[in-house]
Amino acid sequence: MRQEEFEDRYVNHWKKFEVQINLAEALKLNKKKGEHSLKGFADNYRQLCYCLALARERHYSPLLIHRLEALVFRGHQSFYQKRLGIFQNIFHFILHGFPQAVRQQANFIWASSALFYLPLIVVFLLMLVFPDMIYMIVDPGTVTSMENMYDPAAERFGTERSSDSDFYMFGHYIRNNIGIAFQIFAGGILLTIGSQFYLLFNGFVFGAIAGHIYNIGYSETFFSFVIGHGAFELTGIVVAGGAGLQLGWAILSPGVYSRKQALVNAAKSSIQLVYGSIFLLLIAAFVEAFWSSTHMVSANTKYWVGGIFWILVIGYLTLLGRRKRLGLTKGSAHGS
Fold first, then answer.
1. CA-to-CA distance for 325 and 1, rounded, in angstroms?
2. Cα–Cα distance measured from residue 14 to residue 51, given in angstroms and rounded to the nearest whole number
3. What is the predicted pLDDT for the residue at 323?
4. Is the CB of residue 109 less than 8 Å from the CB of residue 185?
5. Residue 167, class by beta-carbon neighbours within 10 Å (0-12 exposed, 13-18 middle, 19+ buried)?
6. What is the per-residue pLDDT for 333?
7. Are 124 and 207 contacting, i.e. CB atoms less than 8 angstroms apart?
8. Largest Cα span, the chain
């Protein structure tokens, strides 16, 4: 079936379902008024998932697939949030919604990863050849501070304030990490320029500091410290960057929508990435405060645990929620 025939056959169904989604979002939870207009919502949602599966299988235009994905995403949110309590919603989001959102916006996540990790790696390698380059990227005061933080003789790694409690540092890391993530995300509204700048900037700085610490011989202290929480913190930053890029791209390339509507659609989708980023950064702050800075375990143990954390994060984002998603596409499908 050609795409034109496919759209002619199902477009009225999509429009009707979009009206139902708008109504469901307006009603929020458990409000009786107008719920008669949502009759058949579940069947219409399954039909829409079926249309999306067909569009992907037949390689129809990206604009059509994006439109259907946006409708499926909004329908999924409305369909499940109406049936779950707040804690069930959070649990469902962690196990299904967030991993699915990352995979649905994979292009933006990969772009964010490139903007962050490529300058990090390049600057780190350049630092090995040109050690004095550190002072072109980081001010001398910060360099001294980093050296004190990762001095093997320090009582606690990752902070100069050895008298501060782990709970205090936990709060400090939450504020710092989430502040950076929101900065990267919000910068996307400037046609993606802000998100790109902050991703590049943080990649440059992190690469420069890592290279300098390696050059002065504190590499074991530094890398055993960052590997533990790095799986959660760096991934959280990249996800926040992907959300910002998605937001800005909706303005640059709105597709079949007006720029305003495209921005609204992107905001509803990207906010899921922001929530997931916060979830990862909270875990990162906990690990950084109570595990990464301790002297009680060896560097080798921290490397092993850090490696396991990276495997868990990658597996979580690539595997969880797939069965749920596949189940949605196998509903009561009508003939094509």
1. 25
2. 9
3. 58
4. no
5. exposed
6. 39
7. yes
8. 72
Per-residue tokens: 278: 């916060």
Predicted local confidence at residue 330, as pLDDT: 39
All structural domains of the chain with their residue ranges: 3-83, 106-322
Q: What is the pLDDT of residue 269?
A: 84
Other beta carbons within 10 angstroms of residue 189's beta carbon come to: 17
The structure tokens listed for 243 are 């959300």
pLDDT average per 10 residues of sequence, the chain (336 residues): 87 85 67 56 84 87 85 76 66 90 94 98 97 93 90 65 65 90 94 96 96 94 93 97 96 86 87 95 93 87 96 95 50 40
- CA–CA dist 262, 255 (Å, integer): 8
Contact 212, 149 (CB under 8 A): no
Spatial separation of the C-alpha atoms in residues 229 and 154, rounded to whole Å: 19
Cβ neighbours for 224, distance < 8 A, ≥ 6 positions apart: 299, 302, 303, 306
Q: Say how many C-beta atoms besides its own lie within 10 A of residue 267's C-beta.
A: 15
pLDDT at 27: 67
Contact 173, 237 (CB under 8 A): no
